[in-house]
Design a protein that fits this description.
The chain is mostly helical. It has seven helices and no strands.
Length: 160
Amino acid sequence: MPGVSPLDGTELVNLLADLTTGSNIHPGIHLIAVGARAIAEDAAAGKLDVPATQLLQAQLCGDADVDVVALIGALQAWLASPVTNAALHGLPEELQKTVQHQGELADYGLRDPDLREPGARVCAALDQAERGCTDVTDEKRKELKAKVKKANDQSINRPK
């Protein structure tokens, strides 16, 4: 059936729609949603292999120093700081401090290593599947995390 997406009727497509429709959606948020949709559609269309899926999992939420969740936290802190967001300059000083503190807490919370555990486990399981192994040890997870970090550090798509 032409025009039907494998994403239709899913929670993911509903979230994407919420972030792409409406007059108050910032163009940057729209681009994030478009990118997320492209990734999901590539997965559904079989355009991703196991290593690509593993890398995407790590880039989304696998390492607090190099993933999308950390990026969101850092952006929240940036937007909440009167030093980096001129829109906050007119607020009373105490309110500026409160807003900045809450932004810093959001950033800190999104960098929590426990938040990465499920993503790291997905990556480790995919690594094991790729190697034909069944055991996923903590040591293996640490090794995989280092491997993903190294790959991200070497990526030409990443600013240096």
